[in-house]
Amino acid sequence: MSEILTIVAHARAKPGQESRALELLQGLIAPTRKEAGCIDYDLHQSIDDPSLFVFYENWATVKDFEAHGRSAHIQKFRQVLGEHLAEGPTISKWKIVP
Q1: What secondary structure letter does DSSP report for 50?
Q2: pLDDT tens digits for range 1-59
């Protein structure tokens, strides 16, 4: 039995780019949720600092997450993220502790 992989990905928008960064990040949600092995993929924005964003993701397998990184929509996002993000995305991998 494979373990569910949890991903926490943090990003910070450049000053003045918060709305555009939000738009780009929201654009990743629908296609990602259709990917094989995607259990959930939720975007959060900080209440205290609207330039901070976090994706909370769960994947059925590591291979599914790796395929996500090669998907067309993620590749397209990588081409423009430097224009709108000051930091990140930084990705950490987690497992559920029983």
Answers
A1: T
A2: 468 999 999 999 999 999 999 999 999 999 999 999 999 999 999 999 999 999 999 99
Cα gap 12→21, rounded to integer Å: 9
Q: 5-89, what's its fold?
A: Alpha-Beta Plaits (3.30.70)
**CA angle in degrees (0–180, nearest 5) for 3-7-11:** 175
Of 73, 38, 71, 34, nearest to 56 by C-alpha is 38
Contact status, residue 70 vs residue 3, Cβ threshold 8 Å: no
Note whether 5 and 59 are within 8 A (CB): yes
Tens digits of per-residue pLDDT, 57-96? 999 999 999 999 999 999 999 999 999 999 889 999 999 8
Task: Give me the count of residues in the chain.
Answer: 98
- Beta strand ranges found along the chain (DSSP E): 5-13, 38-45, 52-59, 85-94
How far apart (Å, rounded) are the C-alpha atoms in residues 16 and 33?
28
